Amino acid sequence: MSDVVFEHGNYLKLLSITKLLILIERLNDRKMKKYFPLMAFATAAFAACTSNSGSESAADSTITAETAVVAAAESRTCYVHYKNRDSIYLDLHTKGEQVSGTLNISLYEKDRNTGTVSGIMKGDTILLDYTFQSEGLQSVRQVAYLQKDGKLHEGFAEVQEQNGKTSFKSLSDLKFDDQVVLEQSNCK
Question: Which of 73, 108, 123 is the last residue of a domain?
Answer without folding.
Answer: 73
